[in-house]
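Structure ticket #2291
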Amino acid sequence: MHHSLVRWREIEGDNLTVFGLGLALAVALHAQQIRERPPLSRRSKQEAKMPPLVDLKSRSPVRVGVEGEMPPLVNLKSRSPVRVGVEGEMPPLVNLKSRSPVRVGVEGEMPPLVDLKSRSPVRVGVEGEMPPLVNLQSRSPVRVGVDGERPPLVNLQSRSPVRVGVEGEMPPLVDLKSRSPVRVGVEGEMPPLVDLKSRSPVRVGVEE
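Resolution: structure written out below.
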């Protein structure tokens, strides 16, 4: 019995020794990998700070409109992040499958979601309002351009940036089936309808 107990302790000691050596080796290898890792460049550091891309099939809200931030809105066919809420830069893209109304024009809050299948007219660009969903195929007039705010409608098939939200400028609302921009957004006017099946650029809401 005594011999068996001594032998078991010898085996246990050997196992602890092997475990300790293995642990020390793993720690040494990890430390070496950290030392050999190249330092991040400025661009890599900026990319590391970028938020993840938003799944447009998800119901998760996203924050936009904070000047200088990089919100996670993306081109529907591109994996590149775009900056929104910065004057003169690209507008947010929209979730065409969501039916939830959102607040627009408030810094740091959710962007408008556009429902192309809705038939409700909407007012956009009024700070703090809860507009219904926008329907580009509706026959109902839509008010835009109130107090310098512009709705971020974009060409989902184009990779060209469009400038919106610059006070006094005419932001381009885009025909979703055309590559030609259309001009709209005169404050307080009721622009005519945009033909989404036409490939000709049209100017709407502009005093002729």
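Closing remark: The first strand starts at residue 172 and ends at 174.
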